[in-house]
């Protein structure tokens, strides 16, 4: 194991902001942030639909505001394989709904409440994610 | 007021993903590449988020109601069952394939990247498939 590209300070600060969003949503709106839940409920449920819509809009405005105020480019590297992206997107969509949460819902909101269910979900998707990357590197 | 909070929380979350670079699939794949060149950053994102959020959950859990809503509405499901494990396994596989989970995928639409858009469309198809199969099973 080699440690590379490690950015602990920006990771911690960004994480703290994510935590702040979770706190505000909980204290003011009485809800827990789980992006897969918010996004899928926006699609399939009438409950809180406008709230969910505004949250998603905010999630997209966030990076735009960051770019505007810091004038820093946001560079990402993402696969350009149609096949891989479609399969991965489907797996993430189906999996988060069957499992009831994703990195935010189980990993932050659930683990923050010390929910055993969320801790087990997080350990499961982390292990499977690690194995998937390992298998990909061998193929 | 709850509408403004929803928008603001989305914005703060999106900025958090950008500053922590979790919006970049390469950072996620780097974290999952524990047996190769490992980038532990994602762990620090979670630590930062949990340090801030966890105390508030415990401070407010005995409060009767949130400030702008009638009641707290969140899952109190404690079940640890096959669905939880199967769902998390499928999610983990998709996460490891592309390096995207729902938050960063949606936030990266801001960059007008056609590949993230494709992922998001496929993800929404996945949401819909589960909802559709649940509704048809219940109807039976």
Structural account:
The complex is a heterodimer of chains A (139) and B (140). Chain A is an all-alpha fold and 139 residues long. Chain A has helices spanning 8-29, 35-44, 49-70, 82-99, 105-112, 116-138, and one strand at 2-3. Chain A has one domain (8-138). Chain A has 6 helices and 1 strand, in the order βαααααα. The radius of gyration of chain A is 17 Å and the shape is globular. The two termini of chain A are 19 Å apart. With 140 residues, chain B is mostly helical. Chain B has one domain (2-139). Chain B is built from 6 helices and 1 strand; from the N terminus they run ααβαααα. Chain B has helices spanning 2-19, 25-32, 41-60, 82-98, 102-107, 114-139; one strand spanning 37-38. The model of chain B has no long low-confidence stretch (mean pLDDT 94).
Brief sketch in words of this structure:
With 139 residues, chain A is mainly α. Chain A is built from six helices and one strand.
